[in-house]
Amino acid sequence: MREVDHGLVEAVQAMGGNTWTIVRKVLVPEALPSLIASTTTTVIALIGYSAMAGTVGGGGLGDLAVRYGYQRFETGLMWITVAILAVVISLIQFAGDFAARALHRRGGPLRTRVPSCGC
User: Fold this and answer.
1) Which residue ranges run through the membrane (predicted)?
2) What is the dihedral of CA 34, 37, 43, 46, to 10 degrees?
């Protein structure tokens, strides 16, 4: 919410917008890409922490990789669980980045470009 331009809030106030209008029409839409990006980072960190907790007995994919892959010398299973974790994290990162870029209002990679005439 801190990165929302204060001029936008002042403009809505000057046009007679109340607090609910400012929150609903300015603050949330302008801050949504940052909120999605930070949520994506948090989810990825939680997946990493849960995998690390699994290596010390917390369960989940980390526990599967250690118990059945490492301790039983089944390196194939261990690498499969690591690959699953990498794919899941990559998909979450891709979806979060795509959603944040799609909701970004200030232009950027999804901005349409006017074709040049070659003059």
Assistant:
1) 34-56, 76-96
2) -80
The structure's pTM equals 0.72
Q: How far apart are alpha carbons 61 and 82 in whole angstroms?
A: 8
> How far is residue 61's CA from residue 58's CA, in Å, rounded to a whole number?
10
Assign domain 6-103 one CATH number from 1.10.3720.10, 3.30.450.40, 3.30.70.890, 3.40.50.880.
1.10.3720.10
* 36-55 confidence digits (pLDDT tens): 999 999 999 999 888 888 88
The pair of three-digit structure tokens given for residue 101, joined into one six-digit string: 């870029």
Q: Which amino acid is at 73?
A: F
